[in-house]
């Protein structure tokens, strides 16, 4: 039995629980929510945060981020990355395996998790590389929370698709589906038809040269066939094997149609959309203006309504930030040669702001944001109950929002080491003002106060 | 501010909240849940109920019951009816307007609510008769929670479809759709093609005589065309007007297909299934054995999988008990002449037991039961937040279950005045052991202790 | 055995046979095609028509015309009507039963056919009134080729829906479906929800007065709900009974969707579009300009693409002219009171011209025209083989076209007694220059030379 | 102008024309049908065949046969193969390019056509190998009638997939789609996921050894995923490029679903079913009994209804015989090692008999057979008008059938050099009794009388 004082109480007239908005108090003891209380209840606490009418939502869970650590820590490391996460309202991250070395083996995974543990300021798990079927069971036992595969080959750049993250061989991919199915974990796939892509790259280079415009068009050659062919393939693999499949980067109308149809059959399929595609690269003007700093993948006008439609209607289950910074030097070459410049851009600190702005515009509801950024990611990764909802027994991961705050986004105000971001100069309304991780305030008004290494490893229960 | 003792605390390792099962305590002050607390939290209370490992679910909300009061109180009155409800785990009822006089006018509605208030032992609202378009706005203002229309004519019996509850004229029905749309309330329709039905009745009587078998077959003549034609009509009216439409009694495969397709277009349509159809009349053997005491409407073998499929996959949103007793004398005639005997049968006390039995068999999940019997009914009627979920701020309407209790159902153990029921002799496993309404235990081990008139009127916020 | 000379040979480089265009000769003996010959074959004949490069198509079959005889012969009689048909390339007509008396009984049908026989200059059959189920079998035996039902009541005008053509009672309609199913004949239904229509009429009159604009809008009130509700009903009846159903006047996008879906299930359903709707009333400017002389039913902009899409893609099986003249005096009142003025307009002489114009524009193919105006109508009525195709054994019903002829349509150049037409002043390119019925040229350059009564009754083989 | 006697007249009461069955006479002058005449017409002819009540259908067109010439003429050569074709009622063949050398270049194609010309006894064209995109335009100009690609790699046997017929690289395949699209010719694809297949082979060998049973199961591992993944890929390529796509070997329920859906969008897609799959390998008992002599690919029980459903409902457009003999010696090894034994089996002489037997059983209509074996193949290859229909102007390619002939099939009665066939001992009813090619009888009662080299090359009009 415990004493009479809570460690923390958070009050708000707009607490977003799974049962809708509640006017009340979230009572925390240690790291856990131990009570949800009405507004009038006595709730003595060592610390009380009164959010007033500011909404409180569960901490964001980002199932898709690239922290560049180990191997590319000049771009970002796990410490920087999770500081930006905390600043953005993200309390849990699952980072991707395209680091050096990629997490293809148990030893690498253990080392990766140890390194992460030494630096993370938010809770974390790791999406291990699923390219070696024989290693999947071991990786699952060693704590992988999901498996990630790029349907790619090493494409001549050490980043982002180094050996150990990608595969194109369907036999191996099918075995990956089988092995992952046995672990019960989800399989995240970046759909891509590598041979086809090379064809469109060659053509784009011939027609438009090497710059960012050429690069943007290459991937969407043939009206999305590079993506759609891969999506239809993995959906059929899923039908054959039964694996929990998470389709990354959904952005073509055919892809949306196929995924929607497959989900309607009751199969365990989820889909992701990315902030860069929803807010930046779906407007060619941004690409023209920001060039390599916008890219990412272009979403042409004819596919944009389908992608946003899927976000609004629930075909999209999860928003993954796809946060992935590079240095300005690395990006700068993209103005003239985007094919050697790396794709990827930092996003983890801003994507909640961008979505809150849409709430203020009436395009998204707060409930839908909570679903896509917190409850669904928690369900996908198997941590719902502990994460992803403001409920008793869950970790006290909370974000206090200020929906009236207007701000022009500037990289200089961000926590990114790289010094730039694709959402530069975007007008926003709404931001996280406090991030609370397991009962501790780790961000307040932009200041991240969490200690290095204070994040906790999330290990699936097996 | 309040004092340190809760009025009631309910402990269980399996509290079904909207965020899943929680091990914890529900803290109640007055009528409201003011806290959900972890199992270790100190929770001093005037009264503590420790359910141990028994599940606790939100009180059932029955959007479809017929209490026969006023006008037919020899069958049942609002007091008897709500006692049976309380015994069955139902804490909120919305009764139907086919009483005498039917609730077609503001004055009648007011009188009806007053009468209900004087007798109800659970909370209640009323589905007013929607047959007079001019009166709909007034009825909504006077507190109707929904509107109900039978697509029928007075069929020569004073019960169950007296003047004032039914209409067949499409122009009037269309105006009903329009008027109800403006109130924002849902429109409940019993789909039926009256002309067609008369045709099949005539034929059935010619072919099979007047008994219960003949009657059972009449409604399903032409492979469900009596129902399907009506369903397609109201779905098209809904498309045209935009009204919140609640389709009652879904039980044909074509009906399921049409409703599923219409819902997939994002239209505000919900559908109901009934316990008598799910458990009794979908097996001809029951009809043979129980005759008029089984009927209700027959669900033929070829339609049963579609109906149950819709229950399992979410096409069905709501289970409405369609509780509607008659006396044995009234029923008895149905052995030889079911066309003058009334349909309808008592169910409100047993339907939770029947569904819990399916949970024990693995056919339904507890989550799905909570959805169909509590959260979805609350959302449909607009009371979600106050009712339909175990959450802070909500009414403390709770049911404690004993999932291991095995029982052969007997009318003599029920609270029905009529002395019989269609679920007689069914083997069940699982029952409600305590019903709590707004913080007060109103049923314990089958004994209903609530005072007459202690139920509360639910009035939509406008 | 026969002699060496054919009675007639028609030569063309573009004969439209079921196997595509053939360069050759159609050899006729007596009334029949007895040979299709290559262009080089010797083909001695008493009469040779060399069409050169002018296309030759099978004579049009109009399954939907209103000749007003008997009862309204001041508008048109069977002689006038079939002369206009012959002038328009139509060699077979099936007229509708809304004459006086309507053809509800065997005696009336016999009288109707006798009268028609005494006047017709093209072959003919009759779509009997199907409103009296008991009479259907007899009518089929007496030579009805199909049954027609309006889902209407007498609407206060003696024309066009007098007692004896219409019904709204679903029980009777269902019995009609059953009785017609047993005859094997098709059932043509004018879908309409009468009650609903009256509602929209009342509103339209209140809002827009009594003129043609008001009338046009009334039928399409509620976004086509008057039509769609009826279509969904008859499709469900068809599913239940299995009758061959021919849905008339398809023109709403929901109707197109429902019919397309039902046909895809392999059910014996066909659908009709009408020239007035495809060419006249689908452009509000025509309604504004021609007022009562345009109407017919308005097809709003949002439904036009679906209707034309259905024409192009094959969802529409049959073009029925819906030819139905009235006098100018009768129409003139429609400028101020269209609700007492009759709908209906003359079309049988121009609809081929209007479609040929679309062939010249590239919107329709000649093959599709032949399908919709000849082969499919022949299949629908059961006369394929005898009618509807240029093939050996078939009646020598042929139309020679001049695809280069440009003409501004004028009623004064038509054969209509009524002196006006909705296609007045339309610019066309393409016309029939010769109509051949059973081997005899009955129209040449607009002059119809057939003798009164020379048309032949088509009697279904039973 | 020509003289008064036809060269040939064929009389029958059941001539299957595109407009249905006709009682009449087919008049032939030289190689062409110059007249279709009624039964009473005088038709003097140098030769008259009176088929009486025996049906006459257009000569079969086999778009998919493997004659093994050049390169494997010990199995069969073009002379043997086309003699068997003529015996089976096939008057036109389009052979496949997996010969030695495969027809990847203009020179090879020319040599192939010359060789074929020197031996063929029926008309012929060639489906060139489409694996070298750069050569496609030239091959089209040199007379290819279609392009064929196996989605395979050389699999360690010189037959059937030697270098030069297969490709797995999607970039090259996409370019093939593009190049073939520009020629306007159809692209035939054998859908197969080679990597996946190897996986299932490895597993099958491990689990079941090397015999025919193991081989049969290997291809259908993963519930058809080897085929379905490939089908979804080529359907998406087709959507992207617009090529006329002909999907070979359709036999999985998912494949049928995908193809049906894609066709419903109006895209130029056709699909093939094969006799071996419809009659032999869809029954495991045949595989057990005939082992390597049955295989071909197994069609499991759960896919058989979908495949046959697609045959009946029109989703399947074309029956390709997939005739492909091997010697007994080559096959015999398959009892113990089917992985080195070749697949493929002789069928061209029997498939019409097998289908006629189904007509006698009521499972197929004669009209559907004519569509799938003659008119649709003619439309697919662009020769409709000249081939594929009994009509004036077409080649006089005719088959006279005896629908009452009962026969147990025996390879010894066939014209196959290889001495065996998968339809050995099948009971049939119905056979071709005369085959007429361009006006000459080339088969009568099983005796093929055509001279070597009398077949004619079919060259697409460009
Ligand atoms: Zn990716
Ligand atoms: Zn990524
Ligand atoms: Zn009801
Ligand atoms: Zn009821
Ligand atoms: Zn009509
Ligand atoms: Zn009409
Ligand atoms: Zn093949
Ligand atoms: Zn083959």
UniProtKB/TrEMBL annotation, chains A, B, C, D:
GO biological process: purine nucleobase catabolic process
Source organism, top-level taxon: Bacteria
GO CC field: cytoplasm
Gene3D superfamilies, per database record: Metal-dependent hydrolases, Urease, subunit C, domain 1
Gene Ontology molecular function terms on file: allantoinase activity
Amidohydrolase-related domain mapped to chain residues: 56-441
PANTHER family for the chain: ALLANTOINASE (PTHR43668)
Protein name: Dihydroorotase/allantoinase
Organism annotation: Blastococcus saxobsidens
């Amino acid at each position: 039995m415990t004493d009479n004082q809570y460690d923390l109480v958070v009050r708000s007239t707009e607490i977003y629980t799974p049962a809708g908005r509640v006017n009340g108090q979230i009572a925390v003891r240690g790291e856990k929510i131990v009570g949800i209380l009405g507004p009038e209840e006595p709730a003595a606490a060592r610390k009380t945060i009164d959010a007033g009418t500011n909404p409180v939502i569960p901490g964001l869970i980002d199932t898709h981020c690239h922290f560049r650590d180990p191997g590319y820590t000049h771009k970002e490391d796990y410490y920087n990355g999770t500081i930006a996460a905390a600043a953005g309202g993200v309390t849990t991250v699952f980072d991707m395996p395209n680091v050096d070395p990629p997490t293809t083996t148990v030893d690498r995974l253990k080392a990766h998790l140890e390194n992460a543990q030494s630096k993370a300021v938010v809770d974390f798990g790791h999406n291990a590389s699923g390219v070696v079927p024989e290693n999947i069971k071991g990786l699952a036992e060693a704590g992988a929370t999901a498996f990630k595969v790029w349907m790619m080959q090493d494409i001549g750049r050490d980043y982002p698709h180094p050996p150990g993250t990608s595969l194109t061989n369907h036999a191996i991919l099918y075995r990956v589906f089988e092995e992952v199915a046995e672990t019960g974990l989800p399989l995240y796939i970046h759909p891509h038809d590598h041979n086809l892509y090379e064809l469109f790259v060659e053509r784009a280079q011939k027609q438009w040269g090497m710059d960012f415009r050429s690069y943007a068009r290459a991937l969407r050659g043939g009206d999305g066939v590079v993506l759609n062919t891969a999506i239809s393939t993995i959906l059929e693999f899923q039908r054959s094997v039964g694996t929990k499949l998470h389709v990354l980067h959904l952005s073509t109308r055919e892809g949306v149609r196929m995924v929607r149809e497959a989900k309607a059959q009751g199969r365990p399929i989820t889909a992701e959309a990315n902030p860069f595609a929803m807010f930046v690269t779906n407007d060619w003007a941004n690409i023209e203006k920001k060039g390599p700093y916008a890219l990412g993948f272009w979403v042409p006008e004819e596919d944009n309504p389908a992608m946003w439609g899927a976000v609004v209607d629930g075909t999209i289950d999860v928003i993954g930030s796809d946060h992935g910074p590079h240095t300005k030097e690395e990006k700068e070459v993209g103005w003239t040669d985007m094919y050697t410049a790396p794709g990827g851009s930092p996003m983890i600190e801003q994507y909640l702001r961008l979505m809150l702005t849409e709430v203020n515009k009436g395009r998204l509801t707060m409930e839908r944001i909570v679903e896509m950024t917190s409850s669904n990611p928690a369900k996908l990764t198997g941590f719902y109950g502990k994460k992803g909802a403001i409920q008793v027994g869950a970790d006290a991961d909370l974000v206090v929002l200020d929906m009236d705050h207007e701000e022009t986004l500037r990289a200089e105000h961000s926590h990114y080491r790289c010094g730039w971001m694709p959402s530069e100069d975007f007008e926003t309304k709404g931001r996280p003002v406090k991030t609370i991780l397991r009962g501790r305030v780790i961000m307040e008004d932009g200041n991240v106060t969490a200690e290095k290494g204070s994040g906790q490893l999330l290990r699936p229960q097996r």
